Amino acid sequence: MCANIVQHPPSYCYWRPRGSALLTALLVLLATLVIGMSALLKWSLASYRHAVNRARRTKMLYVAESGCQYALAALQVYAKTYETHPTTADYTRIVAEFTQIASNTMPPEYRIVKYQFNEGVVYTTNALSDTLYPGARASIKPIYVAVGVEHAADTSIYVEVVQTIEARSFSIFEYGVFVDGDLMINSDKRMEIDGAVHANGVLSLGTRGAQYGLYLKKPVTSASNIFCVSAPEKVAINYTDTQARPMVDLLGQTLDSSHPYWGPLALLQWRGRVLSSVHGVPRLSLPVPYAENDPRALIEPPRPDDPPGLAEARYANRAAVRIMPSGEVQVFRGSVSNFVTVARVGDASVSSWLSTNKFFWNNALNAFVRPLDIHVANFHTWALANARDAFFSNSTRAGILYIAITNSPSYTVRLTNGSSLPNPIINGVSNGFTVATDNPLYILGNYNDVTKCPASIISDAITVLSSNWKDNEHLTSNSPPGNAKNTSYLTSMLTGQTTNMNTFTAETWFGGIEDLPKYVEDWRGTGESGNKEIRGTIASLWASKWERMNAVDPEAGPNRLWWYDPKFGYPPGAPRFHEFVPKEWRRSARR
Fold first, then answer.
1. Between the CA of residue 280 and those of 134, 238, 341, what are the distances in Å?
2. Does residue 537 lie within any of the structural domains?
3. Residue 343: which domain range?
4. Which residue among 5, 98, 401, 441 has the highest number of C-beta atoms inside a 10 angstrom radius?
5. Are 468 and 371 part of one and the same domain?
6. Same domain for 336 and 480?
7. Phi and psi for 104 in degrees, rounded to 5?
8. Residue 481 lies in a domain
9. The domain boundary residue, chosen from 450, 474, 503
10. Cα–Cα dist 224/280, whole Å
């Protein structure tokens, strides 16, 4: 019976493998849960930190952008207050102002570690449409404002904003020739103009039998029509900086505003460098503060009832040294009063540079001229001794001389010995020399050909006498005009126009830029005579008040070599307007 009994192992021997697997599975699940929770926690913490840092960076970007906006606003305020481009000192002041404001209002955990102004290397010049002066030419330079902000507790958190601000300077002195009205250029001699030409009225171009003709090398614009009045095949206008085409179409017909296809053909012929009203050229209202409707007011003596803006705009009130109709020689001394009388015309103390005993016969006027002669080199010496602070150091007045000696056409102003000009250096930059007068003005001999600094002549009328002129050869009525010699006048000219009369045919016409500035001598010679070189702007904004008639001998005119040189573009006191326009910007999280 015992032999039939079957013995089984204990029951736990059957369930042991199953229990081990379950335990292992539970451990794996627990480990996975721990790892997952750890990863989730890390991800959550990372997301939280990322969100916090993103919020921090967003706030820091607002701080950086506010720095750029403050810079733009400060420059715009500066533009309304001053008539110069900002200097390094101005940028330093803006940085200090914003840094102080930010330190009082910015959360303490942020700090500004970069606030910089950097300018583009050179100016460019172009006509602009997105401006208060649409169509006007401007000198343009980019200003880059960089503002960097970091987190005080974690300097790895950093943001930077760079804003490009376009500094624009508009002025009549951006043009080679500018006339606020109709403009005629119809020279009998060779004439080259290397500068933009603009007329707010009808522009008439031509050359009357000139061997070399009329050559315009830069853009030509008119707010009205452009006509060719003579020899279209000899009137050349550049369609690139070096290549030119005449004012004729492919069939040899005159190509001007009278042509049935003028609009499109002008664009094809000169590649957009010759434009008239049909192309959308507006009448340009360039900045002449408080005298837009009467620019001549700039050179007139001040009046007791002048509105504040006009009083400030007059050159008589902007000068460092001035000679008033009473004959008083005055110097600006703001610490005592506005102007102090230091001498009178005729006094021995100013006789080295002021002379009243000269006269000569002017064939173009058929009259004697009795000028107040200003010896420019001796004036420089006198100003150093008697007007140093105002004439050489005052940033808004330096280099400006004003004269208004009388309201009579028989009294004029003449500049002599002007090869070297007074040239105040303001903030390390050549400021130059400006002479403004309510009277007709004459220039005798080479002017600014040694100093070559910014310079301008602003007067009722301008006549040039060559370096070959001698008064003692013109002391009797109907004296012969004399023979001219090559002479350079390196100065911009803002002046009035007169009625011209052909001495042979009695033909009369108003204006004619080829006879501006006016001349007396016979310039028809060859070799060392015959060339009249002018660098800078020639602008006519009013009709001359005193010398209204100009007798012209067309055969005796000079070869006119005119070209706009930007370094003469901004003489002291030049009327101009500044704009600071925001352009592209970028953000960065890298230093």
1. 10, 20, 51
2. no
3. 296-503
4. 441
5. yes
6. yes
7. -90, -20
8. yes
9. 503
10. 10
Helix, strand, or coil here: 129?
Answer: coil
Same domain, 472 and 583: no
* Residues 474 and 582 reside in one and the same domain: no
Closest C-alpha among 67, 58, 59 to residue 146: 67
Amino acid found at 304:
P
- Distance, CA of 135 to CA of 284 (rounded, Å): 7
> Which DSSP letter does residue 254 get?
B
CA distances from 39 to 28, 33, 53 (A): 16, 10, 20
Q: How far apart are CA 159 and CA 416, in angstroms?
A: 61
Find out whether 516 and 496 touch, Cβ atoms under 8 Å.
Answer: no
What one-character DSSP code corresponds to residue 302? Answer: P
User: 311 Cβ partners below 8 Å, 6+ apart?
Assistant: 302, 317
Per the structure, the count of domains in the chain is 2
59 inside domain: yes
Among 456, 487, 503, residue at a domain's last position: 503
| Residue 414 φ/ψ, nearest 5 degrees | -130, 135
Whether residue 204 lies inside any domain: the answer is no
Tell me if 416 sits within 8 A of 331, measured CB to CB.
no
Q: Are 303 and 168 within one domain?
A: no
pTM score of the predicted model: 0.78
Q: Could you please report the per-residue DSSP string of 315-357?
A: HHHH-SEEE-TT-EEEEEETTTEEEEEEEETT-GGGTTTEE--
- Backbone φ, ψ for residue 147 (5° rounding): -125, 120
CA nearest neighbour of 205 among 183, 224, 177, 221: 183
3-state secondary structure 135-173: CCEEEEEEEEEEEEEEECCCCCCEEEEEEEEEEEEEEHH
Residues 473 and 584 in one domain: no
**Average pLDDT, 10 consecutive residues per value, the chain (591 residues):** 47 52 74 70 58 73 90 82 74 91 84 91 78 78 92 86 90 84 82 88 85 87 94 94 93 95 96 93 73 83 88 91 94 85 94 92 88 96 95 91 77 94 87 94 95 93 92 91 88 85 75 79 68 80 84 74 72 82 85 74
Tell me how far the alpha carbon of residue 101 is from its chain's centroid: 33
Taking a C-beta distance cutoff of 8 angstroms, is the pair 359, 353 a contact? no
- Look at residue 124 in the predicted model and tell me its pLDDT: 81
Strand partners, 167: 141, 580
d(CA 487, CA 560): 11
Spatial neighbors of 513 by CB under 8 A, at least 6 apart, are 177, 179, 183, 184, 185, 538, 540
Question: What Cα–Cα distance (Å) separates residue 211 from each residue in 453, 487, 550?
Answer: 33, 21, 24
Instruction: Give Cβ neighbours of residue 47 (< 8 Å, ≥ 6 apart).
Output: none
- The b/e string for 102-123 (b: 16+ C-beta within 10 A; e otherwise) is beeebeeebbbebbebebeeeb
